[in-house]
Every structure is written in structure tokens, then in C-alpha cells.
């Protein structure tokens, strides 16, 4: 089932396009990884999918009954956001705001959903802890639980393992893969090509060249080979 379709998108600022002629689809159960060089337009694309920025041309449409406000979003955090003085429960529950409509309060069902997602992410015991006192990995689990309160179908993740140590990074990728196997469609922006190749079902490579297709097709493509070679060269230089 087709959930999101981008058709001939042009993205940019003040009429200046940084990315043109971009088309792709996200179907139910897909794990789409968006990769590309810095400044290629990955974050701009995420903001466009969320309705926070209008495309210069083209359109994004939704199918299967999906609405834009039913997409769960895990953004990159700023230093100020990591120091946010609220409890874990409050932050996770805030993911239900899109479900509240005109209600000025959270319902019993909202609170139950938040509890279930804290348990799902293994953070129920942290519910009364202050968010800013948590480790980076714990904070990401809180934000993932929050995103899950907003959706049962599509998660949009912007560099979800940025700044995490290797052990916690592996745990986060395993959690995301588990959610995908449970039926959630995943759209993940990442600079981690190794993770993209390991977990994704589809790759969207944006930049001077655009590629959209299955992971296997990407690995066999010229764009994929060149990008992988550059990644390996960068790692060797380190």
C-alpha cells in the first residue's frame, strides 16, 4: 500500500533550488534510508514531508488514509532541547497532542498509550525522572516513545543515533528495525552508510545525482559504488 508519494519535487529557499526532479514512494512496511552529502537537502526534504516547508515545485501526496499529522517524528536535538526540564512521562505524553483536537487535556486513552510506548521502549521505570538528567541513549528512547504516540504507521527519523556511543547506537538501530518488522514504515535520514546498507529496504540518495530504489539496486549502481568508495576513503583518512 502506497502511503507517501513525492512527484517531481524541487526544494530550496527563496526561489533557489538545491534539489530538483525528486520522485519516490514509501509503501507500508518500507524502511527507506535517505543519504547524501552535507548540504544536499536531506533535512529540507524531511521538513517538506512534515509540511513545515512548501516545495518550490512538485507535490507530496498521502495514500492509504494516512494524514500528515499522523507521522511520528524524531528530530535531531539541540543542546537546549537536551536540557529540557520536564519529566519523561510529560515528554512522551506530548506526542499525543495531535490526537487531542480541540480537547485542552489528555484523555485516559492518551495516558495509556504513553505508558504502553514507554514500556515498549524500556523506559517505564524512568517515567518520573527529569529528561535532562538522562543519558543520550535514554533521551533518544524517550523521543522515540513520544514519536510512537503520534503514529501507528510511519516514523520519520533525522539522524537518530547522532552523538551516541557504538553500543547504544547498535541498540537504537535494533529498536528501529524491530519497529519496522512490527509493521511501521521507517524513513530515516542518516550519514551512516553502513547502517543504511544493513537495515534499509530502499535507499534515496540525493545530491548532484539522485537514486531511488531497493538497497540491492543501489549497491549495484554507479552512485552507490562512488558514495561507498568516498565513505571508505574518509574512514581510512581518520
What descriptive keywords fit this protein?
alpha/beta; Rossmann fold; three-stranded antiparallel β-sheet; 238 residues; globular
Explain the overall architecture.
The protein is of the alpha/beta class and 238 residues long. The protein has a single domain, classed as P-loop containing nucleotide triphosphate hydrolases (Rossmann fold). The protein has ten helices and nine strands. The protein has a six-stranded mixed β-sheet with strand order 5-6-7-3-8-9, sandwiched between helices. A three-stranded antiparallel β-sheet has the order 2-1-4, covered by helices on one side. The longest helix has 16 residues.
What is the count of DSSP helices, taking H or I runs of 4+ residues? 10
Distance between the termini: 43 Å
Query: pLDDT under 50 segments (min length 5)?
Result: none
CATH topology: Rossmann fold
Percent in strands: 15-25%
CATH class: Alpha Beta
What is this entry, summarized?
This protein has helices spanning 42-49, 79-82, 88-93, 97-100, 108-120, 136-150, 166-181, 193-199, 215-220, 222-237; strands at residues 2-13, 16-27, 31-36, 57-62, 71-74, 154-158, 185-189, 202-206, 211-214. By secondary structure, it is an alpha/beta fold.
Blueprint of the fold:
Layout: E1 2-13, E2 16-27, E3 31-36, H1 42-49, E4 57-62, E5 71-74, H2 79-82, H3 88-93, H4 97-100, H5 108-120, H6 136-150, E6 154-158, H7 166-181, E7 185-189, H8 193-199, E8 202-206, E9 211-214, H9 215-220, H10 222-237
Parallel strand pairs: 3-7, 3-8, 5-6, 6-7
Antiparallel strand pairs: 1-2, 1-4, 8-9
Helix pairs in contact: 5-6
Amino acid at each position: 500500500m502506497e502511503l507517501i508519494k513525492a512527484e517531481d519535487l524541487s526544494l530550496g529557499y527563496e526561489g533557489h533550488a538545491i534539489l530538483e526532479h525528486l520522485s519516490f514512494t514509501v509503501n507500508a512496511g518500507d524502511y527507506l534510508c535517505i543519504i547524501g552529502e552535507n548540504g544536499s537537502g536531506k533535512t529540507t526534504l524531511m521538513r517538506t514531508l512534515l509540511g513545515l516547508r512548501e516545495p518550490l515545485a512538485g507535490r507530496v501526496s498521502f495514500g492509504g488514509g494516512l494524514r500528515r499529522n499522523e507521522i511520528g517524528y524524531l528530530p535531531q536535538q539541540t543542546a537546549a532541547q537536551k536540557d529540557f526540564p520536564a519529566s519523561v512521562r510529560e515528554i512522551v505524553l506530548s506526542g499525543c497532542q495531535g490526537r487531542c483536537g480541540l480537547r485542552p487535556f489528555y484523555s485516559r486513552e492518551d495516558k495509556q498509550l504513553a505508558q504502553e510506548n514507554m514500556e515498549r521502549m524500556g523506559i517505564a521505570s524512568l517515567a518520573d525522572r527529569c529528561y535532562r538528567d538522562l543519558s543520550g541513549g535514554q533521551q533518544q528512547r524517550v523521543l522515540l516513545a513520544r514519536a510512537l504516540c503520534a503514529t501507528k504507521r510511519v516514523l520519520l527519523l533525522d539522524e537518530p543515533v547522532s552523538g551516541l556511543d557504538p553500543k547504544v547506537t547498535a541498540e537504537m538501530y535494533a529498536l528501529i528495525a524491530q519497529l519496522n518488522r512490527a509493521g511501521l514504515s521507517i524513513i530515516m535520514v542518516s550519514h551512516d552508510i553502513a547502517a543504511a546498507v544493513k537495515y534499509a529496504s530502499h535507499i534515496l540518495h540525493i545530491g548532484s545525482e539522485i537514486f531511488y530504489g531497493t538497497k540491492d539496486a543501489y549497491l549495484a549502481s554507479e552512485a552507490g559504488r562512488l558514495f561507498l568508495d568516498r565513505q571508505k576513503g574518509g574512514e581510512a583518512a581518520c
